[in-house]
Design a protein that fits this description.
This protein is of the alpha/beta class. It has 9 helices and 5 strands; from the N terminus they run ββαββαβααααααα.
Length: 272
């Protein structure tokens, strides 16, 4: 069952609440942080018509960050990009086709400081998605999954343990719902790493050598090698039920280890 208590779950969010005046041409869209694959032209059109009718929108939410790529500071949009585009369209129409990006609008600073983008990237992604779930053109399930997968794919593998529960708590959703969105990717990353460990073992590497390569202790290497076969069997059962060949499993999980003769598989492609 999917439930969302994000409107009441603000423990992870501590906005400064400081309202500032910003020029439209100062506000940037950072696709690393923005939680949508694309923005909705229909939503922008509705917002423009609303502005023409005298509507007053709530302030957008922005943040000053230092880009880790070039070290430059910039102002990024955390929540309200549809409104930014609508403002630009509205003032362009109002000025006979001449863009008036110098127009000043109200904005709320999320944190009243300059954040290092690399250091705060995950936190910025979570907060941007949380805000976009609360009002306006709310984030779709596919867009939420898109944002969560960015977090899963870039988080160090040793920090993936418990990530489903952690993100469920951050967004106010049931763990089963978050698992539905990202569980397969979490499993894929773990199994791929574990298969690399088993591969080195089959090649004759000692456990201490493997531990050094992956930055774990020997007991972890031993546990991974003991548990991996059962993990692979579980994965194989899922794919077998869907009539998927073992080669397809190997490709999806990065598990060419499945084809190793010491593991073996029967005539149906199931692991022995």
């Amino acid at each position: 069952m999917m439930t969302n208590n994000s409107n009441n779950n603000n423990n992870n969010s501590s906005s400064s609440g400081k309202v500032i005046k910003v020029r439209l041409d100062e506000i940037n869209l950072d696709e690393d942080i923005y939680p949508r694959k694309t923005f909705s032209h229909k939503t922008v059109e509705h917002y423009v018509e609303a502005l023409k009718g005298g509507a007053v929108f709530p302030p957008i939410v922005v943040q000053k960050v230092r880009d880790n790529g070039n070290g430059k500071e910039k102002l990024i949009c955390i929540d309200g990009w549809h409104r930014v585009i609508a403002y630009r369209e509205y003032y362009k129409d109002k000025d006979n086709g001449n863009a008036k990006d110098v127009t000043v609008v109200d904005a709320i600073l999320w944190k009243d400081t300059i954040l290092d983008k690399n250091e705060y990237l995950e936190e910025l992604r979570i907060e941007s998605a949380r805000m976009n779930l609360k009002h306006g053109d709310r984030l779709s399930q596919e867009d939420l999954r898109y944002q969560l997968l960015k977090i899963v794919k870039e988080r160090p593998i040793e920090r993936l343990e418990g990530i489903v529960t952690e993100l469920a708590r951050a967004f106010g959703y049931d763990t089963s719902y978050i698992s539905k969105l990202i569980g397969e990717e979490v499993r894929r990353r773990k199994v791929t790493r574990d298969a690399q460990i088993l591969r080195l073992h089959l090649l004759g590497w000692r456990q201490e050598e493997i531990a050094d390569v992956f930055g774990v202790n020997q007991s972890t290497v031993s546990r991974i090698m003991q548990n991996l076969t059962s993990q692979i069997l579980h994965i194989q059962e899922q794919f077998y039920d869907k009539h998927k060949p073992v080669e397809e499993i190997a490709e999806f999980y990065g598990l060419d280890i499945l084809l190793h003769p010491r593991l073996g598989y029967d005539y149906a492609g199931r692991i022995l």
